[in-house]
TrEMBL record:
Predominant subcellular localization, coarse grouping: membrane
Pfam hit, one: Sugar_tr
Gene: Slc2a5_0
Protein name: GTR5 protein
Domain (Major facilitator superfamily (MFS) profile): residue spans on this chain: 1-230
Keywords from the UniProt entry: Membrane, Transmembrane, Transmembrane helix
SUPFAM superfamilies: MFS general substrate transporter (SSF103473)
Keyword Membrane: yes
UniProt-recorded Gene Ontology molecular function terms: D-glucose transmembrane transporter activity
PANTHER family: MAJOR FACILITATOR SUPERFAMILY (MFS) PROFILE DOMAIN-CONTAINING PROTEIN, SOLUTE CARRIER FAMILY 2
Length: 230
């Protein structure tokens, strides 16, 4: 039983690792907006599976749902940052990206409060608690089609300059946005001369060794700060 509990908890992280590893390939091939839409569908399916686990008396459904949630979260973290940053005007880009951390923390707080036995953590309502992760995904699935694709993606990966201009006008309003388009073109020119490293190449690259050590140590020690125990 302890082993099953441990697997149920940790399989979320395994799914997150797989999801984040495949995010770059998917965003380049399909675009950030399409990936986010499909990711929302994945999260809704995962929430439905976990929500129905008690009805069909299957703990395996919780394992599958947790794994799918992990994959969805792993995809969402880099996707969300990139999409929000790329559709925001330059003067608001830093603020828009910083809201991600705020809402992740807010989500954890809401989850902790909702998980109390007096609320959704009771013996009869816990399936509803596990299925609640599908609600934000459903909201985004309904709202996101009204947003355009990321302008940098349209210009840099598909070469659709008119589509890029249309997306910029839809997002930032009418006006002169040639400076932003020139910046994207400069970034595109820079990327042609820059080698994109895979995860394995990054690990093997000596120039990034100390930065990698620092990131790994910081990320590992965050897990030891006591937040999970709390």
């Amino acid at each position: 039983l302890l082993f099953l509990w441990s697997i149920t908890v940790s399989i979320f992280g395994i799914g997150g690792l797989l999801g984040s590893s495949g995010s770059r390939y998917l965003t380049v091939k399909f675009g950030k907006k399409k990936c986010l839409l499909c990711n929302n569908v994945l999260m809704i399916v995962a929430a439905s599976i976990m929500g129905c686990s008690k009805i069909v008396q299957s703990f395996e459904m919780i394992l599958i749902g947790r794994f799918m949630c992990g994959v969805s979260a792993g995809l969402c973290v880099p996707l969300h940052h990139q999409y929000v940053g790329e559709i925001s005007p330059k003067k608001l880009r830093g603020f828009a990206n910083s809201t991600s951390s705020f809402f992740w923390s807010l989500g954890k707080v809401v989850g902790q409060i909702s998980g109390q036995r007096e609320l959704l953590g009771s013996q009869s309502l816990w399936p509803m608690l596990m299925a609640s992760c599908g609600f934000p995904a459903l909201v985004q699935l309904v709202a996101l089609p009204f947003f355009p694709e990321s302008p940098p993606y349209l210009l840099m990966h598909t070469g659709d300059q008119e589509g890029c201009k249309k997306a910029i006008r839809q997002l930032w309003g009418e006006g002169q946005h040639q400076a932003e388009i020139d910046d994207i073109m400069k970034e595109k020119a820079t990327m042609k001369n820059t080698k994109i490293l895979s995860v394995l190449e990054l690990v093997k690259e000596p120039a990034f060794r100390w930065q990698l050590y620092m990131i790994v140590i910081l990320t590992a020690t965050i897990q030891l700060c006591g937040i999970n125990a709390v």
